Amino acid sequence: MKKDLLSLSDLTPKEIATLLRRAAFHKKQRKRIGPKAGMSILRGKSLGMIFEKASTRTRVSFELAMYELGGHAVCLDGSSSQLNRGETYADTARVLGRYVHGIMIRTYLQKNLEELAKASEVPVINGLSDLHHPCQVLTDLFTVQSHQKDLAKLKIAYVGDGNNMANSWIEAAHLLKFSLFIATPKGYEAPAEIVKRFGATVRFSHDPTEAVRGADVVNTDTWFSMGQKVEDEKRQAFKPFQVNRVLMGLAKKDAIFLHCLPAHRGEEVTDGVLDGPQSVVWEQAENRLHVQKAILEMLLRKS
Ligand code: CP
Ligand code: NVA
Questions:
Q1: Residue 161: left (phi > 0), alpha (psi -120 to 50), or beta?
Q2: Which CATH number is correct for 148-279, 3.10.20.600, 3.40.50.300, 3.40.50.1370, 3.40.50.620?
Q3: Is the pLDDT of residue 149 over 90?
Q4: What pLDDT is attached to residue 302?
Q5: What is 8-133+288-300's CATH topology?
Q6: Ligand 2 atom with minimal separation from the 136 CA
Q7: Strand order in the sheet with 46-51
Q8: What's the whole-number mean pLDDT along residues 255-262?
Q9: Separation of 113 CA from ligand 1 center, angstroms?
């Protein structure tokens, strides 16, 4: 198994399956025994977390996952760390590796992560970059499996921006061979390098109705990712891609709605869908905790 988790391709399909099984185990144990059920798993281990972008779920779930596995997490705010004053990612990795057993970073460019990981003796986890959000999509797969079991038999729709979430979904479909339909407005497609490497079996279009019709899972994300300019022109282009009751009505009756959150109510999704009976977004957010535990134990146990 690879040292780092920079994108989903760092995992094999078998490792993903193991990881999702462990997440289910952690979820069950926490419910049955309580948050301290796994306290011996990472006893004495620590995680350094660097956030160069905002976070609610990723920060809390990683920090609590470390705590509940018996370890500890130290959080560095990018803007108040020496990274902000020009210390390189490589030097930061060399130093942090002397203190901690793993590093989780949320950053902008994928090459920042790569530089950090290359110089780091301890595992590096991508907690979101402009290009990928692997930990989130692992949680999404876990959430889908908990509801509908066999990924291979499902139609999964992603409607919205060709961003980090879309990219990690494309990689997931490539690795796990499920049927993924992606609908983006013209000019907002997933990057060509991702489509070329991983998109052979994915159905790309500019038609949200085609993507959602008959889908088992409908997934969307913000129109403006962190670090992107908010432009009215983009907002207009995305209006037909809003997941509202009419669009959701084209999916299967028992389809579920996913959103990594934070949601921008009235933009990419309406209150009716987000708060409606098909939405599983709160459970999805909770699942971040169980999946982070599985990721951390897989990567940090031996470090
Ligand atoms: N979905 C997600 O990564 O949420 P945060 O930005 O709050 O961490
Ligand atoms: N695409 C969003 C995801 C937030 C969790 C962003 O990068 O801001």
A1: beta
A2: 3.40.50.1370
A3: no
A4: 82
A5: Rossmann fold (3.40.50)
A6: 5
A7: 72-77, 46-51, 102-106, 124-126
A8: 98
A9: 18
| pLDDT score at 148 | 74
At 216 the pLDDT is 97
- pTM, rounded to two decimals: 0.98
Domain boundaries, the chain: 8-133+288-300, 148-279
Site residues for ligand 1, CB cut-off 6 Å: 55-58, 128, 136, 260-261
Which ligand number lies closest to the CA of residue 281? 1
For the cut 80, the answer to whether the pLDDT of residue 32 exceeds it is: yes
Ligand closest to the CA atom of residue 227: 2
Query: Letter for the amino acid at 195?
Result: V
Query: With helix as H, strand as E and coil as C, how does 233-249 read?
Result: HHHHHHHHHCECHHHHC
Task: Please give the share of the chain, as a percent, with pLDDT higher than 90.
Answer: 97
Query: Do the first three CATH levels of 8-133+288-300 and 148-279 match, i.e. the same topology?
Result: yes
